Amino acid sequence: MATDVQSLYEIGKNSPEEHVSLAYLADIPKYDLEKPYAIEFDIPLENESFRSNLEFESSIVSIRDLRLRKEKIRLEEHGFEVVDTASSFEHDYFRSEAPICEMQDVESLLKERFETEQVFCFTQRLSSQQSPCRLHDRKRFWKPIHHTVKNHPLIFCDRATLSEAQIIPCDLVSPDYLGGFSFVKYSEGQQWYWLSNQEVDEAFIFTSWDSHPLYEPPFLQSLFTRLAYLRIQILIYPNAKVWKTKDGY
């Protein structure tokens, strides 16, 4: 475990830099008067234009490569980190017992990393979608499925450069409840990072937005195309102990 805690800026300031275009919630006067929203159920065709008031815009950002400094990144300090894992699966792994094995492998890895006996993995899926910056506060385990990542890598924003004013709450309207999520507005001060050539035995653990896409605005990234990842949501209970009876239960 790293002992010299540095900011992401200090870690990545001399790293190679790329420029890409990302989609953000548009910074427009409309949202001063009405809250962003999206309706998630069927509505009459004549009312389809009212399904959502979400609008997006693209901005060019620079991203720095943390490949040579990945061991300095810590989930506790930076919101994400890279861990080594021996697991790798092909696209058809859902047809076997592999999902159960993968969950167990991930739980074992995280128990060792966080020195705890309580880790709960759930709702794993394949993901190959892009979406605008949409936030949910939960931990995720994310890794490529079958080969080195050459296109569409994950990128991470330094949370120290993201202000509360740039996180815009939105309503998600369903027939049974009113939910919520958040989108990010662009700011010149935001700093972004990535890991070049991510291998199948390299996984990210991170606190992140939910990348299930409600809407897919046009993306201008020349660097990013679609690529399949395995993603698993996780709950980690630091320093937890498992209590057992004398019979082992």
Automatic annotation (TrEMBL):
<comment type="similarity">
    <text>Belongs to the asaB hydroxylase/desaturase family.</text>
</comment>
<dbReference type="InterPro" id="IPR044053">
    <property type="entry name" value="AsaB-like"/>
</dbReference>
<dbReference type="GO" id="GO:0016491">
    <property type="term" value="F:oxidoreductase activity"/>
</dbReference>
<protein>
    <submittedName>
        <fullName>Uncharacterized protein</fullName>
    </submittedName>
</protein>
